[in-house]
């Protein structure tokens, strides 16, 4: 899976520890699915999962890793990936934007991205098959990029991995049913009734759309107007979330927690968020008894190396090397009210 700020790779065993002993839990909602690492792991353990995210690239990952059934799509996907991987590069919008005007990928690999993405667009594939192909392309580009894992900036000098040729691989598909959507969290919460809802919302000013705008443009393939050194999509300025605003996160979280239709809630948060952990616990307590689990966690590398200007000069100091990740498990005593 792609490098991702806030990935629950390290925390995943603790998440599963909280879920697996719960009686009668079979269906899940992953409301802020991101890379779908959690949804994929839950599907692998036999749960029926619905994964949702309002960003298009994340919804594609969810369609691949949660919705697509390997038994149905695996053979066709394997042949498709092999055919796409054989395409020669043909530079276009992606190469010019992200490899010439900026330095996310080497131009030789950008040309491969352009050629493969144009072929995917021309094939008019079924949603699951298209999602598998796009996931393969995102992950291939991620393996040869020149960033520290976010797309707010790129390295001044090419990363060693960026010199490797881009190669597609078949994603790790799972057998069985699942589903995915690309909705705002509140709408998705109201639309699904499940045994357990897993919530991993944004918790500070860092927008996932801004951090992963290259993937958003690659998936949407709308070749948008871009701005700044990072070549962000112009709609990054407008597609804000209440969860990324100090004054908006509390009402946003309260609304989603109230709307979720589940017997259990498992909420992931951090002590680096805009909301204090005690306040998060109070908000969740409106739905039922809360148990808090705290896990020390090494911070993301970008936070540890400090802040640099476009000339590569250090202009800030690194933050603390560790923070506390928290899981809040809630037994929802009252059903949520579904507004008409």
Could you characterize the architecture of this molecule?
This protein has 340 residues and is an alpha/beta fold. The chain has one domain (12-331): Rossmann fold (3-Layer(aba) Sandwich), CATH 3.40.50. The chain has helices at 12-19, 37-44, 56-67, 70-85, 93-100, 107-123, 127-143, 185-191, 208-211, 213-220, 249-259, 277-285, 301-305, and strands at residues 27-30, 48-52, 179-181, 193-199, 226-227, 232-233, 261-270, 290-298, 322-331. Helix 2 (37-44) links the parallel strand 1 and strand 2 (48-52). Helix 3 (56-67) crosses helix 7 and helix 8 packs parallel to helix 11. The relative contact order is 0.15. The mean pLDDT is 91.
Helicity range: 25-40%
State Rg. Answer: 20 Å
Largest beta sheet: strand ordering:
3-2-1-4-7-9-8
Which consecutive residue ranges, at least 5 long each, have pLDDT under 50?
Answer: none
* C-alpha geometry: globular
Superfamily at the CATH H level?
Answer: Vaccinia Virus protein VP39
- Give the integer mean of the pLDDT values: 91
Q: What is the CATH top level name?
A: Alpha Beta
What does the secondary structure layout of this molecule look like, with pairings?
Layout: H1 12-19, E1 27-30, H2 37-44, E2 48-52, H3 56-67, H4 70-85, H5 93-100, H6 107-123, H7 127-143, E3 179-181, H8 185-191, E4 193-199, H9 208-211, H10 213-220, E5 226-227, E6 232-233, H11 249-259, E7 261-270, H12 277-285, E8 290-298, H13 301-305, E9 322-331
Parallel strand pairs: 1-2, 1-4, 2-3, 4-7
Antiparallel strand pairs: 5-6, 7-9, 8-9
List keywords for this structure.
340 residues, 15% strand, globular, alpha/beta, 13 helices, two-stranded antiparallel sheet, seven-stranded mixed β-sheet, Rossmann fold, 38% helix, single chain
